Every structure is written in C-alpha cells, then in structure tokens.
C-alpha cells in the first residue's frame, strides 16, 4: 500500500526533530560509541509486505528486545512450568532494579525486566546443549537472513560490566531460583542482547506475535495461539518496564524496548513494527522511537481496546 510508505516517510521526517533529546546508553561502554542521530522505522505485515524509512540499512544491538525471543524459546521447552519461576506482573521499577528480588524471594516480577530474563535464560540454558548457537539460528530463520551476527565487542563489554546482572543472578541462586552456572547464563544472556539486526529484520523476527504464533516468513510455529495472546498481554503490561503504562496510554499496543534504541510493536492480525533511534529517556526507552510509534498509532488509527 502506497499509504503505509507515505506514512513512514513522514514519520521519518518528524521523528528526527527529536534528535538531541535523550542520551545513548553509556553503562555498556561499547554501546556508547553509537552515533545518536539515527532513526529508522520498518513495518512487516502479516501478508508479508515490507515498508521502511530512514536509516533502514543500519544494524543495531537488539538488547532487551531479545528477551521476547528468549522467553519464546524457553516456553517451547518448559511450557507453563516456567511461570513458577517468574511472575506476570508489571514491576513498576527500573529494568535493572534489584530491590524487589529480595522482598519477593528471588521470583522476578516478569520476564522482561533483567532479573526475569536471567531466570528465563537459566531455564533455557539448562535445557539445550548449545543455547547461543540455537538462539542465533532461530533469529536467522525468523528474520530471513543467514548473516545475522552477535557483536562480540558489545557482548564482551557487557560481561566486563556485568556486576548488577551478576548480583541478580546470585541473589536468585540464594533463593534456589537459578540452576545453572551464573557465568554461563550471563554469557548467553549478553550474547542474546548483542545480536545485531536492521529494523526490518527485527520486525520480521517477531511476525509470529502478530500471526497467532506462526512466523510469516518461514511458516514455522513458534508458540500456540494461546501462548501468543499471553505473550502479547505481558508485553502490553510490562514490555517497557516502569514506563509501560505511559506506552499503553500513548501508543496502546504490545511493545518491547531495548537500550540499543530499538522498540518493537505488535498489532495482532495486522503487522509488526520496529523503530530505532539510539538516544534514550530516563527509563531506557528510545526518545524518537516512542514519538514515532505514537505518530504511527495516530496516523494508522491503531486501536486495540
Ligand atoms: N533494557 C535493556 O535493553 C537492558 C539490556 C542490557 N543488556 C542489560 O542487561 O542491562
């Protein structure tokens, strides 16, 4: 549809007006080197149409967006048992907060904050023989590109500055909610975060969430229809951490952000969208990306409720 391309092109122009606001993540030194003034938007429809605008050839670190894929793979191996180890409630705290873990006996509030993703990663690492290879192969299959890679420099940089994530993992181990070797799980987790994709590859990767669990590209079933609906519900309530309510208010769709500046959004039955711009607000969400999704929701008249 010419219309969608037109809308994305106009959002690309408008979103760039927010350059200069926010800051590129610097607590992971390798990410701090990324140029802030970049923006892309990509839409992938459930009938396989693709539209993109802006710096759409640039690859970026998917960071916490990978938590959605980790949860998907872990659910495939563990099913509903996984929910005994991780909650389903919004945390209301920062993505890397440790505070609740102590009070809530090592059970993270949800799978999209770091503590939750680490438990999910632990569950996955405990079940598969080559967890990093399997994740990369899955990402390549879903995105439709064999050449997708993990940026080792970013993964190593995260490992070097792992103390907060390591503290969460050890705290959960003290509550018997962490089975594998902490270092092994952290390395897998950082490798997942350091996968690099274009916005279109990321939009394609999550096509199954808009398509009742079946990847549009490959036809592969990733989740049951019911699990897909549950995943989208959790993304709606917790995908943007302690800014999930604001995102629901402004955009109104399930979404997941990462500190690389990417945000995916899902409109079930219609399309997935990925926006990217590296400068982040105080919650760790892309400033221009949020503005772009708000514009998209308005221009395309997206309404989930
Ligand atoms: N919100 C994010 O994208 C955080 C991911 C990052 N790798 C971390 O563990 O801190």
UniProtKB/TrEMBL annotation:
Give the transmembrane region(s). Answer: none
The reaction(s) annotated as catalysed by this protein in its Swiss-Prot or TrEMBL entry are: L-glutamine + H2O = L-glutamate + NH4(+)
Q: Which InterPro entries match?
A: Beta-lactam/transpept-like, Glutaminase
In short, the EC number is 3.5.1.2
Q: Which GO terms describe its molecular function?
A: glutaminase activity
Which keywords fit this entry according to its UniProt record?
Acetylation, Hydrolase
Spell out the PANTHER family in the cross-references.
GLUTAMINASE
Q: How does it assemble?
A: Homotetramer.
User: What's this protein's name?
Assistant: Glutaminase
Query: Which species expresses this protein natively?
Result: Pseudoalteromonas ulvae
